[in-house]
Amino acid sequence: MRSDARANRAAIVDAARTLFSGRGVDVPLSAVAEAAGIGIATLYRNFPTRDDLIRAVVEDIAGCFQAVEREYLARIEEDPEQGWHDFVHALAAIRPGTIIPALAEKFGGTGAPDYVAPLREGVLATQQTLLARAKKAGLVRDDVSAKNFQLGIASITRPLSEQPEADCDTHTAWLIDVYLRGLRP
Amino acid sequence: MRSDARANRAAIVDAARTLFSGRGVDVPLSAVAEAAGIGIATLYRNFPTRDDLIRAVVEDIAGCFQAVEREYLARIEEDPEQGWHDFVHALAAIRPGTIIPALAEKFGGTGAPDYVAPLREGVLATQQTLLARAKKAGLVRDDVSAKNFQLGIASITRPLSEQPEADCDTHTAWLIDVYLRGLRP
C-alpha cells in the first residue's frame, strides 16, 4: 500500500472511531468521509461495506490496547508501583468507555461477529498477566477479577456528555487515581 | 389534586425520566404517554409544553437526592462509617449517570433554565455537609471536592449500554465500593 493510501485508510478509521463513539455505528458514511477529509468513493474503495469499517475500528482499538500492554509488561517488572499506575492511566487514555457502548449496542442483539472473540481474548490475556503482577506486588486486592477491572475502566472513561466539558480529562484522571487507590488491598 | 390525577402525573414523570435517560429529552411525547399508560391528552393537560415536563423531571430527581440526603444527615451522626457507606450507595441507586447526560445535552447549548441553579445548590449544600462529616470521621481525604465527588458518582452510575446487562447493578455496586475505598485518606 502506498503511503498516501495508508494515510487515507488511517484517517478513515480514526474518523469512524470518533463518530461511532459520539453518534453510534449507524452514522452516515458520508459524515465519516467528510470528517476524514476524503471523498466517499475513497471510503468505499477501502471499506466496501459498513461492517468492514466497523471491523477495522475494532481491530484498531484492540491494537491500541495491545501496544499499551506490551509496553507495560516490561515496565511493571522494573518498577511495579509506577508501572501499574502508568499502565492504568495509559489504558484510560484510550478511552474505551467512548466506543464500547456504541459497539455493545451494535453487537447486543445479534451477538458479536467471529473476529471479535480472539481479539478480546488476546487483549484480556495480557491484561490478566499485568493484573496478576500488580496483585503480586500488593497493589491490587486478590479478589479483583479482570472483568471487573476492565468494566471499571470503561465506566470511568465513558464521558458524561457527548460534548465533554473542558475539564473532562482532569476529572477522568482524578477518578482513575481514586480507582487505583480503591483497588489496593 | 385527586389521587388518580396525582398517580397519572407521577406515572408521566417516571416514564419521562426513563425515556429521557435512554433516548434523550427530544423523545416523542406520545412515547412518554404510552409508557405511562395514559392518553396523550392527559399528558398535555398535566404538561402543556415539553419544557414543563423536563422541569418536572428535574424537580423529581432533585427531590430524590434531597430525600436521601435528609435521611443520611441523621444516620451519619449515629454511625459515620456505615452511614457514609449507605449514603453513597443510596445516591448511586438514583443513578444520576443515566439522566444527567440527557439534561446536559439539552442545556449544554443554551444554558440551564433559571429554576435549575437553586435546585442544584440545595442538593449540593446538603451533600457538602455530609461530605464534611465523612472527612471529619476520617472516611474521605480532605482534598476531595463536592464537585469531584458528585461527578464520580455520575460517571460510575452511567450505564455502559442503553440496554444494560443483567449484572450491571452488581458491577455498579462493586465500583461504588472501590470508589469508597479510593476516597479514603
UniProtKB/TrEMBL annotation, chains A, B:
The keyword Thylakoid does not apply. InterPro entries: Homeodomain-like_sf, HTH-type_TetR-like_transc_reg, HTH_TetR, Tet_transcr_reg_TetR-rel_C_sf, TetR_SbtR-like_C. Residues 6-65 form the HTH tetR-type domain. Residues 28-47 bind DNA. The keyword ATP-binding does not apply. Keywords: DNA-binding, Transcription, Transcription regulation. GO terms for molecular function: DNA-binding transcription factor activity; transcription cis-regulatory region binding. PANTHER family: HTH-TYPE TRANSCRIPTIONAL REGULATOR BETI, HTH-TYPE TRANSCRIPTIONAL REGULATOR RUTR. This is Putative TetR family transcriptional regulator. It comes from Gordonia amarae NBRC 15530. The lineage of its organism: Bacteria, Bacillati, Actinomycetota, Actinomycetes, Mycobacteriales.
